[in-house]
Amino acid sequence: MKAAVIVSPGSNCDRDVQVALRQSAGSDPIMHWHADVDLPDVDLIVVPGGFSYGDYLRAGALAAQSPVIREVVARANKGVPVLGICNGFQILTECGLLPGVLMRNAGLKFICRDVDLRVEAADTVFTCDYVNRQIIRIPVAHNEGNYFADDETLNRLDDENRVAFRYCCPEGEVRAAANPNGAARNIAGILNEGRNVLGMMPHPERLADALLGGTDGRPMFDGLVEALATAA
Amino acid sequence: MYLCKYYTRLIFGGNAAVSVENQLGKRRIHVRFAPGWGKHQSMKARIHITLKNGVLDPQGKATEHALGGLGFGGINDVRQGKYIELDLAENDPVKARDTVEAMCQKLLANTVIENYEIDLDE
User: Fold this and answer.
1) Domains recognised in chain A with CATH numbers
2) Mutate which of B51, B107, B111 to disrupt the A interface (most A C-beta within 10 Å)?
3) Which of A11, A26, A213, B79 is the most buried (most CB within 10 A)?
4) CATH 3.90.1300.10 applies to domain B43-121
5) Positive or negative CA dihedral for A130, A132, A137, A140?
6) Between the CA atoms of A118, A122, A127 and A131, what dihedral angle is there, to the nearest 10 degrees?
7) Pick from A223, A226, A198, A208: which is nearest to A20 by CA?
8) Where are the domains of chain B?
9) Any chain B CB within 8 A of the CB of A100?
10) How does pLDDT run across A15-29, given as a tens digit for each residue?
């Protein structure tokens, strides 16, 4: 599997994704600088977390206009899997690949801690190594993770089973108390219509190695490698 | 002469041409400017970006709370937004408004949650 990680000024999880992909795929992904338009042909594109362009104007708004993101949108529309994590999720909503917007956390504080997530859609290339209703624990680290969309959009996401992860309590119940940032309907990650674009606020790459205290994030990368190897 | 041309180019770029005339030992320097050059084009656009009604504004709420704590009563609601000022090289208000409108739609505001209002200062 060939993967590319998009690196913008201010990305800071690109190396973590690189390590996680190397571990699962056995080869290094291409680290692609945002200003280079010629994105090589790849089986997977990851838009990593960080503070692209210093979060100026709105988180992800300026990166969403960089030349390479136009190419990422074109590839996604052709069916190439695109994974946006944290700031990557914000960029994917700002460029229109995913609906809604990530607003400032309801508590106005930057949140950096492990959260429990319930897997809601295990039928995608990103989540095929998890099972539906599985509870995983991985970290969030964000100031703008409060997912917002109008009711019509939220209903559509639910009806089409496009919510991939929800914040839940350790037993798996989706409750307001388990919601770290005020996100609508406890949404932590969503899919596009084609199910080949996933945006999520939590960081699977930060818990993909036992040395870091957990491996609940690793199945995402193992699953991607398996799914995309079979596809190719 | 060479220096004269050099400095003209340095100061005015391609907008001016210089020529020198020698008359009875006196030198006259002529500088011709490109048509329309020097006509200043400037227009201020002031853009207010606010959260749409119904979108929760935790910053506004916290500010409202703090104002209450300072003893300022009688506040029904506080909503916080953004103010952006653009200096445009444009004299045509219709063109300017169209351009700024497109800027707001494409980048300056996120219309999922934000409204914007454009004021032009001619």
Assistant:
1) 3-231 (3.40.50.880)
2) B107
3) A11
4) no
5) positive
6) 70
7) A208
8) 2-33, 43-121
9) yes
10) 999 999 999 999 999
Q: How confident is the model at residue B40 (pLDDT cuts 50, 70, 90)?
A: confident
DSSP string, B44-90: EEEEEEEEPTTS--HHHHHHHHHHHHTT----------EEEEEEES-
DSSP state of A3: E
Closest CA to A72 of A91, A55, A58, A59: A91
State mean pLDDT over B70-90. 95
**HSE toward the beta carbon, residue B13, CA cutoff 13 A:** 4
**Interface ipTM:** 0.83
Residue B92 has pLDDT above 80, yes or no: yes
Tens-digit pLDDT profile for residues A65-98: 999 999 999 999 999 999 999 999 999 999 999 9
Name the minimum distance, in Å, from the CA of A103 to any CA of chain B: 9
- Euclidean distance between CA atoms A142 and A49, whole angstroms: 9
**Cα gap A68→A106, rounded to integer Å:** 32
